[in-house]
Write a structure and sequence with these properties.
5-stranded mixed β-sheet, Heat Shock Protein 90, 2 domains
Length: 408
């Protein structure tokens, strides 16, 4: 069964505010068009006066409603240069002028009612229109005509004051509506940004996971091929380890998709040592003093550095060291001795993504080259500026890659 209030509940918060504001102003315009009939009850005893004021009120309310509709739609760019808005404003001015002219046929009380109707109603049509001479010129012209019709300053001043109060009300309502619209747009942009950040996080993790495992598979496949050419039975064991690495990559990719993968530092270090050994690269690891709160970001650094060593260097030795500093700070360094000139400048996609993940945690990453050596240096603070788990999904630690004996 269709709910009776679905017209309201199916709309967004911004749409509800706009609907409420728009129809409140519309109803106020038409209420004034009818309420002015009670301005001078004695004058309305003349049927001709009552009908004249009612006709002017209906015509003016209709033209004003159309003009206000265009004003609210165009806000904040409410310019009379817009053809549709210009036609609506001209219609309001013509009806108001015709009503004031027709009031010459009415007694003074009837003229007063028409002037009150004109000045109170036109505020909603021209109060927020640019250029400003339109917004101020129309009521001033109407006030001058009313002064000529009534010959008294006091009622004209009162009606003019009512006009500018309604102008203030209109502009305030439009301002509130504009703020609500901007907040609605900002909310949508925030949602889109959250989606984009999640996609970026996921792409970084895919790069980390698949990059390391594909490097492992490539190195061990090459070793297996070499052993197979020699007729060495260890080729079978090497290929089994390649298969294990492939299964591990698949498992981590699935865990990543579920959002449960967590990077474990000891596992990452042992995996890096094993992978480098398989590639014939010696590894020196001295990270016993690394504080536990830095394990996860340190694991990201070791993973990226190891992947880059295999892809972009001719290293024979890799050193992974941590040096504690005062105040709980420290420096994690991953250095290799086989930098390939022109290929490691610290601007690769992997390092840029790593910097973006480390910056919110208060980790400053440096790249240093010196006479054939390449070092990735991470300056760690006293404690992470944010929980590392906020920058990467959490899950069960990955299983370290299996190792094979180094070929003598």
């Amino acid at each position: 069964m269709r709910r009776w209030d679905v017209f309201w509940t199916s709309r967004s918060q911004a749409d509800r505010v706009e609907l409420y504001t728009r129809w409140s102003l519309y109803l106020l315009i038409w209420w004034m068009a009818v309420a002015v009939l009670g301005w001078a009850p004695e004058a309305l005893e003349d049927q001709r006066v009552a009908v004249s004021i009612l006709v002017v009120g209906v015509l003016l309310a209709g033209a004003t409603t159309d003009a206000l509709r265009r004003v609210m739609t165009a806000y904040p760019d409410v310019d009379v240069a817009d053809p549709g808005l210009r036609r609506s404003v001209i219609a309001v001015v013509v009806v108001a002028a015709a009503g004031l002219g027709a009031s010459l046929l009415l007694p003074t009380e009837g003229r007063s009612g028409v002037l009150a109707l004109v000045l109170s109603t036109t505020a909603w049509a021209v109060g927020a229109v640019r250029p400003r001479w339109v917004a101020y010129g129309v009521p001033l012209a109407a006030a001058a005509a009313g002064l000529a019709l009534l010959g008294e300053v006091r009622p004209v001043a009162v009606f003019l004051g009512v006009h500018f109060f309604f102008v203030f009300t209109l502009r305030t309502s439009l301002w509130v509506l504009g703020v609500v619209r901007e907040l609605d747009v900002a909310k949508t942009a925030q949602s889109d940004l959250a989606v984009a950040e999640e996609r970026l996080r996921f792409s970084r993790d895919v790069h980390d996971v698949l990059g390391r495992h594909l490097s492992t598979i490539a190195v061990r496949s090459e070793l297996a091929a070499t052993l197979a050419d020699r007729g060495d039975p260890r080729a079978v064991e090497a290929m089994l380890e390649v298969r294990g690495s492939a299964h591990e990559a698949l498992r981590e990719a699935r865990a990543l998709a579920r959002g449960y993968r967590r990077t474990d530092f000891p596992t990452e270090v042992e995996g890096a040592r094993s992978l480098l050994s398989s590639a014939g690269i010696g590894a020196v690891v001295e990270v016993d003093d690394l504080p536990e709160q830095w394990h996860e970001p340190a694991a990201w650094i070791v993973r990226e550095a190891t992947t880059n060593v295999l892809r972009h260097s001719r290293a024979t030795t890799v050193e992974i060291t941590y040096e504690a500093r005062t105040g709980g700070r420290g420096v994690l360094t991953v250095r290799n001795d086989g930098a390939d000139p022109g290929t490691e400048d610290g601007t690769g996609t992997g390092l840029l993504g790593l910097r973006e993940r480390l910056d919110p945690l208060g980790v400053h990453l440096d790249v240093r080259r010196d006479e054939g050596t390449f070092a990735l240096v991470a300056h760690l603070g006293a404690a992470p500026a944010a929980a590392p788990t906020a920058a990467a999904p959490t899950a069960a630690p990955s299983v370290p890659p299996t190792t094979i004996e180094e070929d003598a």
